[in-house]
What does this fold into?
Amino acid sequence: MTPSPSQAVAVSPQDASAQASLVDETMRVTLPVRRRIRLRDIWTSLPVGWMLGRRDVKIKYKQSALGPLWLVLQPLGMLLAITLAFSKVTSVPTGNVPYVVFALVGLAVWTYVQMTITVSPQVLQSNQQVVRRSPCPRLAFVTGTLISVLPPLAVVLVASVAAAAISGHLGIEALAMPVLIVWLVVLMWGFTLLVTAIGGRFRDAVALAPVVVQAGIFLTPVGYPLSAVPGSFAKVLALNPVSGVIEAWRWSLLGIAPDGFAVVVALVATLVVTVLGWYVFGRMETRFSDYV
It folds into this structure.
């Protein structure tokens, strides 16, 4: 006989315990780990990063009428604008170094920095489907970003070395260039880790990037030396880590004595940005698929 709703059904303590045990066994709560990337993933994800970087380069110039010629035209246009703004409008002391050569070295660094700043906040959004639907290592997106902006750096760097040699300022210090190139890449790698993670979570970084690029060309000694900046404002500009990198590059290619304070600040900033970027990226990486 089936009991009516108002009737109480007696359940033994053993049956109640068995039912509770069954419920406990069927309930599962899955939480993301706090961190899952390791230092060795930098190396193991490099082949995937190389593939993504090559893909981005091909996509960038595939539908362009001039194609790879933009690798030359863009830096040339920027060099012309810097020369007109800082050399023709104002007097910039560069010693016995021709101004075009002086500005070209600064432009080599700034080209890489500018393109990295522009691309970094949109890395996850640009690879949205890959992030959501594949186990692709997330570090590969950062590596691919840095690789995709290497061609413009290579073009301007070769032009800078050639110009320094033709002008007679290329000395033994140029042997330090490989180390300085690695320094620039490491600085921007840490920056990309940080901005990629933040940009994936907060879209404000995408809107902020053009502002940073537009103001940065004036707040970074691309077209002028730090020694020409009056008063204590030079120390303020030296707090920009890119300033120290540019000073070091000009010392290596042109033999110009660098600003020691700016170089030290840039070295410390590189370490801080890299460690901070690794920490933030590692903590947020487990939820990237939720953000995008």
